[in-house]
């Protein structure tokens, strides 16, 4: 049997997915240059899951787009680092309009 909190948590996760999935997927695709839809889906779901796990901070942040962007960049940089794609990492570091301290820590 599910508790009321479980239901509201599920609804919040579904709402985050419904509202942000396509935009996060597209941003990850552009930033990573991945062609593998399954890998893009996995990264996108990881970002959404982290947003859900940090739902209190996310809800309180008046700049939700910035919160999402920083979370997304953390996942993109971790992915590229794990793949050893130094060329893409350097390109992003040089061209992204956000301080690297936000996504490299």
Task: List descriptors.
mainly alpha, 82% helix, 105 residues
Architecture overview:
The protein is an all-alpha fold. It has one domain (4-104). The chain is 82% helix and 0% strand. The chain contains 6 helices and no strands. It has helices at residues 4-32, 37-53, 55-60, 64-83, 86-95, 101-104. Helix 1 packs across helix 2 and helix 1 packs across helix 4. The chain is globular. The model has no long low-confidence stretch (mean pLDDT 85).
Provide a concise account of the structure shown.
The chain has 105 residues and is an all-alpha fold. Helices cover 82% and strands 0% of the residues. The chain has helices spanning 4-32, 37-53, 55-60, 64-83, 86-95, 101-104.
Number of strands: 0
Secondary-structure-based class equals: mainly alpha
Name the poorly predicted regions: none
Helix content: over 70%
Global outline: globular
Average pLDDT metric? 85
As a whole number of angstroms, the C-alpha radius of gyration is 15 Å
Layout of helices and strands, plus pairs?
Layout: H1 4-32, H2 37-53, H3 55-60, H4 64-83, H5 86-95, H6 101-104
């Amino acid at each position: 049997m599910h508790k009321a909190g479980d239901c509201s948590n599920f609804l919040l996760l579904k709402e985050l997915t419904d509202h942000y999935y396509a935009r996060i997927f597209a941003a990850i695709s552009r930033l990573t240059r991945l062609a593998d839809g399954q890998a893009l889906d996995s990264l996108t779901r990881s970002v959404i899951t982290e947003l859900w796990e940090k739902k209190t901070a996310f809800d309180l942040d008046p700049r939700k787009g910035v919160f999402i962007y920083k979370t997304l960049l953390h996942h993109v940089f971790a992915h590229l680092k794990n793949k050893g794609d130094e060329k893409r990492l350097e390109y992003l570091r040089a061209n992204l309009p956000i301080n690297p301290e936000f996504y490299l820590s």
